[in-house]
Amino acid sequence: MNSVGVLVALMSVVILAFILMSNHVHFVIYGTREEAIAFVNELKRRHSRYLTVKYGRVKSLKRNALDIRMISLEDEGPERAIAYVQMNSVAANICLHSTQYAWGTGNVFFNPSQGAGKKVSSFSDRALIRMLHSKIPVPGDWLISDDGYILPSSYVDIDYVHNLYRTPKRMDFFLKTSSKARLRLETSEDKMPSFRDQIILSALPDLCRTLYGKKEFSELEEGQKTEVLRQLRYRFSSNVHQLARVTGMSYEAAAKMLDTH
After folding, report:
1. Residue 189: what pLDDT?
2. Residues 6 or more apart from 124 whose CB is under 8 A from it?
3. What is the per-residue pLDDT for 181?
4. One domain, residues 68 and 110
5. How many Å is the Cα radius of gyration of the chain?
6. Where are the alpha helices (DSSP H) in 102-214?
7. Domain count across the chain
8. Which of 151, 196, 199, 256 is in the most buried spot, having the most CB atoms within 10 Å?
9. What pLDDT shows up at residue 93?
């Protein structure tokens, strides 16, 4: 969370919405393709360094896939893109409404009660470096939450998004009719995942080691990946969408593996 804010201060990138999930992230950025690539690559570099220091082994995110799609400013393209991003946590069965998910812009828009936090200027330089894992200066009027992260309301272009949707009711319409929301509504209760993504993610390395002596899912051969997918589906009652999320595969690839074996 703090890396996002720090990079906004460093690169002057304009963020309209974002969400950080356990195994992927989404950003809606107003700018050029080159600016978007530079921002995400720097975020990956900084997070790789953080993981290396935290866990004591090199963890590079260079090979993690980067999918950039240009959004048309016509035909309600930005409205639909932002709603898609906001609804990721709901589609993943983490919360009932996007405003309940803290790791992104879920509760930023049309929220008159937001803003609780301490100004950056109220912290010492040493405290900020320890908290933000960075020496890059950020604006003193930005707010830091009680959990120690820069509130997205400090650096997300809220006015642009409000002008885009115009009213809370119109934004709620896009949230409820987004492709992520339709997926949740169209999925019958007996096919809904029984476990949160985090539970399966914590079990995945152990399953790979037990079955094939490998540390990570990415180290497995195709046939081995298929068997792990089948085991996860059986043990955790997972659907294909959840299996794709926790393994980092595309929905099409995961579905093909399960359908052809």
Report:
1. 45
2. none
3. 64
4. yes
5. 20
6. 125-132, 158-165, 168-177, 179-186, 197-212
7. 2
8. 151
9. 75
The pLDDT value recorded for residue 188 is 47
Same domain, 214 and 180: no
The last residue of a domain, from among 137, 170, 186: 186
Boundary (domain end) residue, out of 186, 218, 240: 186
Residues with Cβ within 8 Å of 214's Cβ and at least 6 positions away in sequence, in order, are 208, 220, 224
From residue 244, give the alpha-carbon distance in Å to each of 44, 228, 250, 253: 21, 12, 6, 8
Q: Say whether both 54 and 97 belong to one domain.
A: yes
Collapsing DSSP to helix, strand or coil, 29 comes out as: strand
Q: How many residues does the chain have?
A: 261
Same domain (yes/no): 110, 234: no
List residues bridging with 144 in a β-sheet: 118, 150
- Per the structure, the complete domain to which residue 234 belongs is given by 189-259
Residue 5 structure tokens:
């804010």
The Cα-based distances of 51 to 20, 23, 47, 133, 250 in angstroms read 16, 14, 6, 12, 24
The separation between the first and the last C-alpha atoms of the chain, rounded to the nearest angstrom, is 40
Divide the 261 residues of the chain into consecutive groups of 10 and give the mean pLDDT of each group: 95 94 90 93 90 80 83 92 92 84 94 84 95 94 94 96 96 88 54 73 90 90 92 86 86 85 52
Can you list the pairs that 70-78 forms with residues at least 24 positions away whose Cβ atoms lie under 8 Å? 70/33, 71/28, 76/174, 78/16, 78/28, 78/164
Residue with tokens 């792990």: 228
Same domain, 181 and 207: no
